[in-house]
Design goal:
There is one protein chain. Helices cover about 15% and strands about 35% of the residues. It is built from four helices and 14 strands. The protein has helices at about 5-10, 30-40, 75-85, 180-185, and strands at about 15-20, 90-100, 110-120, 125, 130-140, 145-160, 190-195, 200, 215-220, 225-235, 245-250, 255-265, 275-280, 290-295. The strands form three sheets. Strands 1, 2, 3, 4, 5 and 6 form a six-stranded antiparallel sheet that branches. The protein has a five-stranded mixed beta barrel with strand order 10-11-12-14-13. Strands 8-7-9 form a three-stranded antiparallel sheet, with helices on one face. About 20% of the residues are buried. The mean pLDDT is about 90.
Length: about 300
């Protein structure tokens, strides 16, 4: 891709990415309650007559639900089409950033508009070569006051040629979690326990997030758990994995949660609340991972 093509892409910067929209619902207490329950956030600021909405809900008030929304303007569609024509036919969301300027409260009406903020030069990534496209959505109250900004970045790329299956990525082991991985190597799933307040914690941390004590010991997990939540990974493809596959947030019997693959059942039969049991799987000569298999008779 030459400089002329990059200049054509850059010409889209500053153009509207979506028509001005109005939030489908006003900021409301039921949606705040559902969000807090899902996140396990018990902050009293989000309850009662003087409640505010959690700042991280900023994008929620602009979403249109399953019915979809009119919105993307010709400029954004043209930009993606231009990248498609250049062979960048695949897309993956890479990250988002939010800036909060004022709290939103139940009853606030929300309006929003989006702009194509930036299009990167050609970048080479593990997935393939392409361009990062960043859109910025400004979220306002009904009187026009800016409440916050949401930046969303995607990579439109030409998929790299798939290489032969690779080894699974190695976990990052440091002084804070080395004991956990040593336990896994011995077939034990160890949970940290604060020596002061006895609170269990996972993942491993250098200090207690309940009382701040740096002293701790460990307890061994029974291996029993349930699927608290899960996602099915379809994209992007990585050579070491064979999508689609299910990744679960597993609630252990001891009360802590950890992320791991859900195995032993088809990905489309994984369900929230499904009982699972720990098993250790040797991926190669160096790597053993704790995975969770569906308890026989509970799949589907």
């Amino acid at each position: 891709m030459n400089d002329d093509f990059t200049a054509r892409l850059k010409a889209y910067e500053g153009r509207p990415a979506a028509a001005t929209g109005v939030g489908r619902d006003p900021v409301n207490a039921p949606m705040i309650r559902h969000w807090c329950e899902a996140m396990g956030d018990e902050n009293p600021a989000y309850r009662g007559p003087d409640a505010v909405a959690p700042p991280t809900m900023l994008q929620v008030w602009t979403m249109a639900g399953l019915s979809g929304q009119a919105g993307r303007t010709g400029a954004y569609t043209e930009l993606l089409g231009l990248l498609d024509d250049a062979g960048c036919t695949a897309v993956v969301a890479t990250d988002c950033e939010q800036e909060y300027l004022r709290p939103l409260r139940p009853g606030d009406e929300v309006t929003f508009d989006a702009v194509i903020e930036s299009v990167s030069e050609r970048k080479r990534t593990r997935l393939g070569t392409g361009h990062f496209v960043t859109t910025r959505t400004d979220v306002r109250t009904g009187d026009g006051e800016l409440a916050g900004t949401h930046r969303f970045r995607i990579l439109k790329y030409a998929p790299a040629r798939r290489e032969p299956r690779e080894r699974r990525p190695r976990p990052v082991i440091n002084r804070d979690n080395a004991g956990f991985w040593e336990g896994v190597g011995r077939g034990r799933l160890l949970i940290q326990r604060c020596a002061a307040c006895r609170t269990l914690r996972f993942p491993w941390l250098p200090g207690c997030n309940a009382c701040g004590s740096p002293e701790w010991d460990t307890v061994e997990a029974s291996g029993e758990g349930t699927v608290y939540s899960y996602v099915v990974m379809h994209h992007p493809p990585f050579p070491a994995f064979d999508p689609p596959y299910a990744v679960g947030l597993i609630e252990l019997a001891e009360g802590v949660r950890m992320v791991s693959d859900v195995v032993g059942v088809p990905y489309d039969e994984v369900r929230i609340g499904m009982p699972v049991r720990l098993r250790f799987e040797r991926c190669d000569e160096e790597l053993v991972l704790p995975l969770f298999a569906a308890v026989e008779g509970d799949g589907g």
